[in-house]
């Protein structure tokens, strides 16, 4: 293979970092441009220590800036686009989410066409497929079943619009010559060392005497380990760079899961953290249908107040649906088309994640000791 180069957006994020670690081991990769809004000092240090022949260039910039993206894409062979804001509780303004997740993606597609970048991989999400109702059971779903989220909540909506734009751009003519090939990967809930969502769940538990709030006991999900999602991106990169495979992969989306056992969010978080002394707080809660109607009322209040005050409801119907649905996916199509097989088995993924959770618990103990000395 001749020398090539890759731009990864969101490279300082949870998934982005994992992709960079695998990517730099790829044959013939001369340069990887790691782009993020900002890099933490520890991420800069982590990347500087990568033992590799590949040049790693850090770019601090915003995907909302088309001019910046045009420069970043010059001379690039593949773009892996993971940058996004994830906001399921409605903490951010809808416009901000749309600007970053949708306009940012459109900017990047345009920059690829202008700079004649022939391959584009978009990190989508299963949230573009639903779940639309907690009463609907979707098990081991595959791509040809055409599940589509109907929520108007900004995060799933923005991911859906961005994915549609990416897949539609497949087959576009590049400015100099050649064709743009695009594909999208839809991971389920990603876990592993550094997961912002897991970190949030664990911090809540640590503040609550290590009791994990039971909020999702009716769900059945199949989460996926971050190293396996990163691996799927590497395989998609290889496939889109292969001129024999690219026309078949281009325009397609793939669900990315692994052999992590299917279980509820509650049991999953408990399985990962019970060795640190966490357990489920099974305090009685309102029945789900009542919570759902309460969420509806809170959303109405938020809507009515919005001209004068931003009231963010503590929960909404969308999050209740996600947390209480049977919603699992199969990775068969990725296996067939991309040759995807998880490289981390559940036991190893669980062990790595548990060690990281343990380090969070130790940090928390350290903070408590410092606070008590003050
Ligand atoms: N975490 C999950 O469970 C999950 C599941 C399915 C899909 N995804 C998708 O995977 C991708 C990566 O998610 P993650 O969990 O690593 O999240 P993350 O928040 O850790 O990473 C996202 C990165 O994007 C960067 N970013 C945000 N706005 C930017 C902007 N305007 N310009 C440049 N960079 C910007 C952030 O700084 C961050 O480093 C996202 O597209 C997300 O939608 C995540």
What would you say this structure looks like, in words?
It is found in: Endoplasmic reticulum membrane; Mitochondrion membrane. The chain crosses the membrane at residues 290-309. With 374 residues, the chain is α/β, with parallel strands linked by helices. The protein contains 13 helices and 14 strands. The chain has a 7-stranded parallel beta sheet with strand order 3-2-1-4-5-7-12, with helices on both faces. The longest helix is centred in the C-terminal third of the chain and has 28 residues, at 346-373. It is globular and about 60 Å long. The structure holds nicotinamide-adenine-dinucleotide. The site of nicotinamide-adenine-dinucleotide has 27 residues, from helix 1, helix 4 and helix 6.
List keywords for this structure.
binds nicotinamide-adenine-dinucleotide; oxidoreductase activity, acting on the CH-OH group of donors, NAD or NADP as acceptor; 374 residues; 3-stranded parallel beta sheet; alpha/beta; single chain; Rossmann fold; 13 helices; transmembrane helix; NAD(P)-bd_dom_sf; membrane; endoplasmic reticulum; 7-stranded parallel beta sheet
What is the share of helical residues? Answer: 40-55%
What best-fitting shape do the alpha-carbon axes yield?
globular
CATH topology title of the domain at 4-197 and 223-261 and 329-346: Rossmann fold
**Helix count?**
13
* CATH architecture descriptor of the domain at 4-197 and 223-261 and 329-346: 3-Layer(aba) Sandwich
Which small compounds were modeled alongside the protein? nicotinamide-adenine-dinucleotide
**Strand line-up across the major sheet:** 3-2-1-4-5-7-12
Report the span from N to C terminus.
Answer: 60 Å
CATH superfamily membership of the domain at 4-197 and 223-261 and 329-346: NAD(P)-binding Rossmann-like Domain
Structural class: alpha/beta
How much of the residues is beta strand, in percent? Answer: 15-25%
- Taking all Cα atoms into account, the compactness measure Rg is 21 Å
The number of distinct β-strands equals: 14
Subcellular location: Endoplasmic reticulum membrane; Mitochondrion membrane
Pfam family, one: 3Beta_HSD
Transmembrane segments: 290-309
Protein name: 3 beta-hydroxysteroid dehydrogenase/Delta 5-->4-isomerase-like
């Amino acid at each position: 293979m001749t020398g090539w180069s890759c731009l990864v957006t969101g490279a300082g994020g949870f998934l982005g970092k994992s992709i960079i670690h695998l990517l730099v081991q790829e044959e013939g990769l001369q340069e990887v441009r790691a782009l993020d809004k900002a890099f933490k000092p520890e991420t800069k240090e982590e990347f500087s220590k990568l033992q590799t022949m590949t040049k790693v260039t850090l770019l601090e910039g915003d995907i909302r800036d088309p001019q910046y993206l045009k420069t970043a894409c010059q001379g690039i062979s593949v773009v892996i686009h993971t940058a996004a804001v994830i906001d399921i509780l409605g903490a951010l303004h809808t416009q901000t989410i749309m600007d970053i997740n949708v306009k940012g993606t459109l900017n990047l597609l345009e920059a690829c066409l202008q700079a004649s970048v022939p391959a584009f991989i978009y990190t989508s999400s299963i949230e573009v497929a639903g779940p639309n109702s907690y009463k609907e059971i979707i098990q081991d779903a595959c791509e040809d079943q055409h599940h589509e989220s109907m929520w108007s909540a900004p995060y799933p909506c923005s991911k859906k619009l961005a994915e549609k734009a990416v897949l539609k751009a497949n087959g576009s003519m590049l400015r100099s010559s050649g064709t743009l090939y695009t594909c999208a990967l839809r991971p389920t809930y990603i876990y592993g060392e550094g997961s912002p969502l897991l970190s949030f769940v664990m911090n809540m538990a640590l503040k609550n005497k290590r009791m994990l709030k039971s909020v999702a006991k009716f769900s059945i999900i199949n989460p996926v380990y971050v190293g396996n999602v990163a691996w799927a991106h590497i395989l998609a990169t290889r496939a889109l760079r292969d001129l024999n495979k690219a026309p078949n992969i281009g325009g397609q989306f793939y669900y990315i899961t692994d052999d992590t056992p299917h279980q509820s969010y509650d049991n999953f978080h408990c399985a990962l953290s019970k060795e640190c002394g966490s357990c489920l707080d099974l305090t009685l809660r309102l029945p789900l249908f009542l919570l759902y109607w309460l969420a509806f009322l809170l959303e109405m209040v938020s809507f009515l107040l919005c001209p004068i005050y931003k009231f963010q409801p503590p929960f909404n119907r969308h999050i209740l649906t996600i947390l209480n649905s049977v919603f699992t996916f199969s990775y068969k199509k990725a296996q067939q088309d991309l040759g995807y097989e998880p490289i981390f088995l559940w036991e190893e993924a669980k062990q790595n994640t548990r060690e990281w959770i343990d380090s969070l618990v130790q940090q928390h103990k350290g903070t408590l000791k410092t606070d008590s000395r003050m």
